[in-house]
User: Which sequence fits this backbone?
C-alpha cells in the first residue's frame, strides 16, 4: 500500500500542462458477511476457474487468519473517482478519464473501470458524504492497511503562515517564514551545483523578511555576493518604496579605489576602544592579512601578537594615550567636519586632537559630523604595525621565529601588515565607504574577489572580511554592551541599540566556497553563527557542495536546503553529518529537478523548537 501523496504526485505529472481536475471518495464498511459470501462463491465455483478461485480462497483464508490471530479489523472498501470537462468537450473528458485511470492504476496496481452500474449514481457517489450507495466493486482489506493510504499523511508545515510559499510534491501549499519564533536559531545552509536556483531562493527569503508581519520598518539585511544575483531584489524594493525612502536600499559594486576605503578599526561613536565582538572581527581580519599566500592559517604566534598590537594601537590613539591624532584641517573626506567647526565656532589650536573635536561636535548635537571626525581619531591598520615596534613587543617576540623557521615573528608581522596596506589601498586611509541609512544592502565583490592563485584567494578573503565589517558592524550590538560605552554617550547608544535589537537581521554570504582557503574568514562566520541566536541575527551561507561548509557550521545549521540531485559522495557526507532519514535520502537521490517552466524542486531540512521537519518541497 502506497501513501496517498504518491497518487497526488502521479495526477500532477499526468496533467501534461493541463490541470487534471478530479475527486475521490472512500467508503469503508464492516466486511464480515462479504468475506463469507466471497469464500462460499469461490468454493462452489472452483471448477469454473480453479486457479483464480483457488487464489481467492487462499487470500480470504489468510485475511481471516490474520483477523483471528492478530486482532486486526476486517473491512470492505469501495473507492469512487470522478473527473470532468466542459459539456462540449467530450474528447477532453475521455482523455482526462484515461489519465486519471492510469495514475490510479500506477499508484498501487489497482483495477480501474470506467463506470459500474448507474452513471448518475456513480457521479453522486464520488462526492464525499453525498451517498453511501457506492457503485464501485468492493474490495477486502484490513482497516490498518486502508488507513495507511488514506489522505491523512500529507506533509504539514510548522509555520501556519509565511512570506515564502512552497508547494509539496503533491501540490499542497507549504508556508515558510524565515526568522520566526518557530525556530530557536536561524542558520541557513543552501548548496547545489551552479544554475540550480540558489540565489533565487535567497532573494525570496530576503523578500519574505521585508514583508514579515508586524514589522514597522525594513529589516537589516546584508548580502555579500560575487555577481549581481541580488540586484533584482534591490530593484524591486527600491521601486516599491516611495521616493523619500529609496535610500534605505542599496546595491554597491566594491572596487579597490579611495572612495571605497574602509577602516576595519572604526569604533562606535565616542568609544575609544573596540567592543569585544568588534575586536574579534578586526583580529580575524588582521590574522587574514598576516597569513602567507597559499597558507590556510597564520603562524600560531600571530594571534596573541595581533591582539596585543591592536590593544596597544588603541591605547596610544586615545585622548589619554601617548600619541592621540591631532586635528588637521582640509583632510580628504573631512570637509563636513571643517564646516561644522566653523559653523559652531569651536576653538581649535595646534594641540587639538580629533577626539576633542568628536566630543565638542557631539555636545553640539552634530552626531553625523562627530562620527566623521572619529574616523580620523581611531587607528588604521598601519598604526597596528607601528604599535608592534614598541619595546615591549621586542622583549616578548624579538627572538621568536615563525613555525617554519624562516623569519622572526615580529618582523614577519610588521612586514605582512605593511605589504597589505600597499596591496589593498582601501585599508590605507580613514573610512570613506558610507552606506548611510541603508538597511537592505547588497555588496558585489566581483571586481575584487578573484580565484585561481594563492594571491587571488587571499584577496578574496580580505574583501569578504571587509564587506562583513562594513555592512554588519552594528548587527550584534546588545544592551549588555552599554557599560563599555563612555558615560556621556550611553543615552545616545541606548536608543540605537534598542531599535537594532527589535529589528530582524540577516547576513548572507553567497559563493561561500570562495573563502575556503583562509581559515580566519571561516572562524569569523562561525563566530557570527554562535552569536546569531542570542542577538537575533540570521546567517545564511550559499555554496556549491556540502563539503564547502565546516563541520561546526553544519552542526549549527537550523535549515539545510539541497537544490540539486546529490551524488554518492555528497550523500555520504550528508549522512555522516545530518543523519538522513530514508525518506530524505531517497528524495535527495531521486526527486530534485532543475529549474524549468514547471519550477524546480529541492529537499529542505528544518530544525524547529518542537521537532525537526524533513520535507521535500517543489
Assistant:
Amino acid at each position: 500500500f502506497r501513501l496517498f501523496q504518491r497518487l497526488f504526485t502521479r495526477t500532477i505529472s499526468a496533467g501534461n500542462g493541463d490541470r487534471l481536475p478530479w475527486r475521490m471518495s472512500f467508503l469503508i464498511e464492516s466486511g464480515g458477511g462479504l468475506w463469507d459470501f466471497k469464500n462460499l462463491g469461490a468454493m462452489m465455483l472452483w471448477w469454473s476457474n480453479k486457479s483464480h478461485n483457488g487464489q481467492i480462497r487462499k487470500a480470504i483464508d489468510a485475511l481471516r487468519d490474520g483477523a483471528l490471530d492478530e486482532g486486526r479489523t476486517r473491512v470492505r472498501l469501495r473507492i469512487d473517482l470522478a473527473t470532468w470537462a466542459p459539456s462540449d468537450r467530450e474528447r477532453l473528458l475521455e482523455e482526462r478519464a484515461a489519465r486519471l485511470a492510469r495514475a490510479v492504476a500506477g499508484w498501487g496496481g489497482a483495477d480501474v473501470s470506467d463506470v459500474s452500474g448507474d452513471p448518475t449514481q456513480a457521479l453522486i457517489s464520488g462526492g464525499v458524504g453525498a451517498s453511501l450507495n457506492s457503485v464501485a466493486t468492493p474490495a477486502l482489506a484490513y482497516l490498518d492497511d486502508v488507513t495507511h493510504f488514506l489522505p491523512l499523511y500529507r506533509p504539514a508545515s510548522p509555520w501556519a503562515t509565511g512570506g515564502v510559499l512552497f508547494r509539496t510534491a503533491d501540490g499542497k501549499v507549504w508556508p515558510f517564514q524565515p526568522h520566526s519564533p518557530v525556530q530557536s536559531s536561524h542558520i541557513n545552509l543552501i548548496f547545489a551545483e551552479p544554475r540550480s536556483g540558489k540565489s533565487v531562493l535567497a532573494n525570496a527569503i530576503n523578500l519574505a523578511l521585508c514583508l514579515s508581519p508586524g514589522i514597522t520598518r525594513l529589516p537589516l539585511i546584508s548580502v555579500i555576493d560575487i555577481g549581481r544575483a541580488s540586484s533584482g531584489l534591490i530593484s524591486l524594493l527600491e521601486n516599491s518604496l516611495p521616493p523619500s525612502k529609496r535610500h534605505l536600499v542599496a546595491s554597491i559594486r566594491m572596487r579597490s579605489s579611495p572612495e571605497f576605503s574602509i577602516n576595519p578599526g572604526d569604533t562606535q561613536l565616542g568609544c575609544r576602544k573596540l567592543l569585544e565582538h568588534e575586536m574579534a572581527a578586526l583580529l580575524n581580519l588582521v590574522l587574514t592579512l598576516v597569513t602567507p599566500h597559499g597558507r590556510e592559517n597564520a603562524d600560531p604566534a600571530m594571534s596573541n601578537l595581533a591582539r596585543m598590537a591592536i590593544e596597544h594601537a588603541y591605547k596610544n590613539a586615545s585622548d589619554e594615550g601617548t600619541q592621540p591624532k591631532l586635528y588637521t584641517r582640509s583632510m580628504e573626506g573631512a570637509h563636513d567636519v571643517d564646516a561644522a567647526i566653523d559653523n559652531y565656532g569651536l576653538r581649535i589650536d595646534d594641540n587639538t586632537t580629533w577626539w576633542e573635536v568628536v566630543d565638542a561636535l557631539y555636545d553640539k548635537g552634530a552626531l553625523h559630523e562627530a562620527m566623521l571626525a572619529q574616523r580620523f581619531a581611531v587607528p588604521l591598520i598601519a598604526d597596528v604595525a607601528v604599535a608592534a615596534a614598541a619595546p615591549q613587543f621586542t622583549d616578548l617576540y624579538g627572538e621568536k621565529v615563525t613555525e617554519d623557521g624562516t623569519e622572526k615573528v615580529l618582523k614577519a608581522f610588521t612586514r605582512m601588515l605593511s605589504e597589505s596596506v600597499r596591496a589593498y589601498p582601501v585599508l590605507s586611509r580613514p573610512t570613506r565607504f558610507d552606506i548611510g541609512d541603508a538597511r537592505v544592502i547588497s555588496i558585489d565583490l566581483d571586481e575584487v574577489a578573484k580565484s585561481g592563485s594563492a594571491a587571488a584567494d587571499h584577496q578574496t578573503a580580505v574583501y569578504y572580511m571587509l564587506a562583513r565589517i562594513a555592512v554588519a558592524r552594528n548587527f550584534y550590538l546588545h544592551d549588555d554592551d552599554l557599560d563599555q560605552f563612555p558615560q556621556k554617550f550611553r543615552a545616545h547608544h541606548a536608543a540605537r541599540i534598542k531599535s537594532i535589537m527589535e529589528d530582524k537581521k540577516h547576513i548572507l554570504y553567497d559563493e561561500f566556497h570562495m573563502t575556503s582557503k583562509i581559515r580566519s574568514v571561516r572562524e569569523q562566520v562561525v563566530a557570527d553563527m554562535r552569536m546569531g541566536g542570542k542577538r537575533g541575527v540570521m546567517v545564511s551561507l550559499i555554496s556549491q557542495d556540502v563539503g564547502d561548509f565546516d563541520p561546526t557550521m553544519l552542526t549549527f545549521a537550523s535549515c539545510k536546503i539541497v537544490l540539486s540531485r546529490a551524488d554518492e559522495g555528497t550523500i555520504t557526507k550528508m549522512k555522516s553529518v545530518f543523519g538522513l532519514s530514508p525518506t530524505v535520502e531517497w528524495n535527495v537521490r531521486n526527486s530534485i529537478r532543475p529549474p524549468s517552466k514547471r519550477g524546480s524542486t529541492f529537499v529542505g531540512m528544518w530544525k524547529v523548537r518542537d521537532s525537526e521537519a524533513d520535507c521535500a518541497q517543489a
